[in-house]
Backbone:
């Protein structure tokens, strides 16, 4: 219990004094996570709309695989990305291992199936509403996808937020491919793991509270920007 | 462009082994309003959707007086339960124009004009899903008519509306028909059928049982089933 109070006071102190290390780690966490989220959404949302609209032979299998990949173990993702980016690997020449870029790549791989699956669930329902109308209007495949993405944007926001939650709290993969290097690849989650390992529970808890506060703040900001709960809107 | 006649020959729609419609042999000319009537489950909606081309046929043929692609561009459909795009009233009406490449400004300007014509001019920016049943149906009509289609298919457009809303919808339809839009519509409302129809298609068990001019049909249907239906008897 004393650790909890100490953690809270530590978190409060870190925030009030705008601790330089904390600010650096937090900004890096945000940069890595938001970049990964944007890239993941750019891949996952059109994919979800495509799967909702288009009928093709391997569609069911694709959806099943996507759903299964939601439970992809992050450490395994990290390991695979590590192998690909390591000097002996096919992309070793780019020298990306132990850089924020490698962490972004790992997060994208983890987040895409999650965002695509949640988005597909919403867009599938929307498509069942729109199906006859859009076909009747002679909308092209691309126009149908655009209509779903635009009109389903509130639901897609939820998918994106779920992706953000998964990415910001991710530790296994980014520890493997980032290496938790101070001033280079250390982010909030890996810092928490490090402090816990050192027995600095108060500091670890402090960072944990900052992480939670950050996740809530970003969620609220996106909800506010999207006006999700405003009356008469979606 | 000459879209008519519309000719269906042996056209049929089958789903899961059950024939929903057909075989249908039907020739529709380019003038007037055709009303499709028949009991529930007779196949009115499927017939309309088949003629419009949004239900795949499992046999027979359907020919327009022009190329199919051309014909598809000049048709619109109003569904029994209007589908509201999750947008404002004006953006819903503008949407079909945006699909054909109109600029946003141009599309919204024409949409505003059509919204005014159907009595939605005061609520242009309201979200479409917030509208009442009558307003939704008016929006669906405006959205269908904004591209000035040559043929308008309507599936029981007044099914859930009160008398006043029905009258308003009928006025819009009469105006569209007066402007040269060919209406093909299903209804359960015999009063409405008498008011609007130039010709009547009586459908039973997926087949066209009777197809005749409205005056002739209502004066004396040729088949016993149609007579029974008009008398309000249960026809299956």
Residues:
């Amino acid at each position: 219990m004393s650790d909890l109070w100490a953690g809270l006071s530590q978190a409060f102190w870190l925030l009030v004094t705008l601790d330089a290390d904390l600010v650096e780690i937090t900004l890096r966490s945000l940069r890595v996570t938001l970049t990964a989220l944007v890239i993941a959404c750019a891949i996952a949302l059109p994919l979800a709309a495509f799967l909702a609209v288009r009928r093709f032979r391997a569609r069911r299998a694709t959806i099943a695989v996507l759903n299964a990949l939601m439970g992809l173990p992050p450490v395994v993702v990290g390991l695979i990305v590590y192998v690909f980016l390591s000097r002996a690997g096919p992309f070793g020449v780019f020298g990306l291992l132990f850089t924020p870029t490698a962490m972004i790549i790992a997060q994208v791989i983890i987040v895409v199936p999650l965002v695509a699956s949640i988005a597909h669930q919403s867009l599938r329902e929307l498509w069942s509403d729109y199906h006859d109308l859009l076909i009747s209007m002679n909308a092209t495949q691309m126009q149908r996808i655009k209509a779903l993405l635009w009109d389903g944007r509130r639901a897609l926001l939820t998918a994106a937020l779920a992706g953000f939650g998964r990415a910001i709290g991710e530790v296994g993969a980014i520890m493997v491919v980032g290496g938790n290097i101070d001033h280079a690849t250390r982010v909030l989650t890996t810092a928490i793991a490090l402090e816990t390992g050192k027995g600095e529970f108060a500091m670890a808890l402090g960072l944990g509270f900052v992480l939670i506060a950050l996740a809530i703040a970003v969620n609220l900001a996106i909800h506010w920007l999207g006006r999700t709960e405003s009356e008469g809107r979606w | 462009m000459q879209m008519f006649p519309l000719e269906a020959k042996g056209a049929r729609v089958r789903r899961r082994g059950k024939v929903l419609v057909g075989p249908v042999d039907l020739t529709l000319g380019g003038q007037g309003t055709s009303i499709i009537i028949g009991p529930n489950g007779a196949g009115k909606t499927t017939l309309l959707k088949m003629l419009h081309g949004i239900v795949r046929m499992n046999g027979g043929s359907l020919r327009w007086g022009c190329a199919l692609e051309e014909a598809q561009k000049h048709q619109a459909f109003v569904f029994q339960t209007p589908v509201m795009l999750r947008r404002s009233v004006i953006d819903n009406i503008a949407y079909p124009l945006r699909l054909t490449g109109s600029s946003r400004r141009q599309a919204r300007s024409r949409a505003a004009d059509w919204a005014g014509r159907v009595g939605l001019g005061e609520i242009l920016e309201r979200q479409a899903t917030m509208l009442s049943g009558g307003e939704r149906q008016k929006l669906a009509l405006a959205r269908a008519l904004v591209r000035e289609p040559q043929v308008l298919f309507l599936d029981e457009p007044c099914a859930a509306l009160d008398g006043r809303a029905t009258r308003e919808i009928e006025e819009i339809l009469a105006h569209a028909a007066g402007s040269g839009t060919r209406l093909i519509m299903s209804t359960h409302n015999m009063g409405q059928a008498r008011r609007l129809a130039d010709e009547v298609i009586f459908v039973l068990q997926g087949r066209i049982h009777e197809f005749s001019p409205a005056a002739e049909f209502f004066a004396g249907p040729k088949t016993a089933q149609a007579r029974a239906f008009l008398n309000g008897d249960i026809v299956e």
